[in-house]
Model the fold of this input.
Amino acid sequence: MPNNECIMCGSDTHPVLKNKVLSIKHDNKMHEVSINDLPTTACPTCGSSFASPEYDYIVRDALRTHLELLTPAEIVSLRKELDLSAKQLAGHTKIATETISRIENNKCVQSKSTDDHLRKTFDMLKSKQSISSIVSQYPKANQYCQSTVHTSEIASNTSDFTDYEAVESQYALAA
Ligand SMILES: [Zn+2]
Done:
């Protein structure tokens, strides 16, 4: 079917940008999402109006913005920052590779819980990455252990000192 022919009456159609408020069901809840400049195709002969091919993608983008979810571009960039393939991210998150690729290609909108899970996984992997980069700057692992022991010695001295103060103040009360 040619893009510019009305499927109802066969007349020529023309593109129209519309401002709409859509009621969208997501995560078992209804959301009112207002979208400006939605691309549609209108037939002046029979009055029909059709969604353009980009319509669904634009609606999903607007829904994600409305729900403050990660965008496909953000997910791809976080994944690449960690040098992970979609399959590796699937392994870390236990989300199917197919689902990750549908989200990244804006074919579906992730649920809030999937979004939280992705954010937490990215945060966890990022901190793992920065810890291992810090540790790699200290080649002598012993040095790191020694300083830990030293810290606990100071802590136990401090608690002795506190006991002594307590005894002294008891004495002061008695006197
Ligand atoms: Zn028509």
About this structure: Residues 64 and 71 are 7 Å apart (CA to CA).
